[in-house]
């Protein structure tokens, strides 16, 4: 390890120490997260300016930064499955949740899939408005290699019935380890079966059911204690992740593909604004939604992991937006694999419209657009909520539209930058589905939703 690497590590330690100092001074959690974002960006810019993206100093430094950044994300992923399982099971101890389960699930799925179809339309509109065409973008060795790997991965793509079938848990204990892309849905289904079993037990054996309820509540309290411990690490994780992202971003590639990046974020922002319109249509304040969801959306943006953001997502819905535990867990869990607005909606639609002209297809024909939106909506089932989910969604859509998959590799150099916005939009979509579902079933606690954001801190 050379002197420069030691210096870079020391800089991160200084940033972490400063953030801890702010904690001792009782600076609000939300403020510390935003300060961490800013410090991470400044540190990343400084490292790139001092060494360059492909320097040995950067290459040797990033694994140490990943201990803090990726380590934090892994801790969140560690607790995500147990949290989903025990929260849904605990929710069945409330009679109202059991009664409204069917309606709740239907509304959540409708919002997730419906908004994904709309997101596809916005992706198409943005691509046309910016006149994007895959033939205009030069391909280097990395892009060609990425294209070849996508062609190989296309062999893994399954039909829609097979995708739906993978959601059912053959081995729920394996799903608790996150062994499959749809493991979260499998855990939800398993927990729901146990919940219905509890409701039956309560009618027949009240004493046994009472013991089960006490046990579930005890485990729930234990898991939530772990969640609170991990969430306290958020500022440090955000700072490390952001420093790594900025330090390793290829500014030259960003400049070359700036038009596509801009078009992508126009579509993503437009879809987020539509989320706010949906919230407003339920009679709630969209500004309150923005204020209270900012922390989790920021983390999703920096981490690029919907699964990693799940604990923050659920905590935000229950503590700040007034969504019941069971509904929040269903919305957050389904949102990991179904109807991701950014990864499964905007991105595949943009690629399809860009690639269509290369094979002589008019992307503006009504038939092509209608077919594309329908395929995007249907294929949004089973998209993994981790890095690479957008690629999988793109493969499915391009294959179904009979478009060349290899050309999707042209965007490899700016994938991380775009994926940040896509992930934040995915998480927002799942939270909106939870809010809307709770509102429709009259389970939303409007007092919690409307109280000032300062009174509903995720972490003290």
UniProtKB/TrEMBL annotation:
Localization in the cell: Membrane
Record field: transmembrane: 6-22, 34-51, 71-92, 104-130, 181-201, 222-242, 262-284, 368-386, 392-414
Membrane topology: Multi-pass membrane protein
InterPro entries the UniProt entry points to: Na-dicarboxylate_symporter, Na:dicarbo_symporter_sf
One matching Pfam family: SDF
Origin: domain of life: Bacteria
Homology family: Belongs to the dicarboxylate/amino acid:cation symporter (DAACS) (TC 2.A.23) family.
Name of this protein: L-cystine uptake protein TcyP
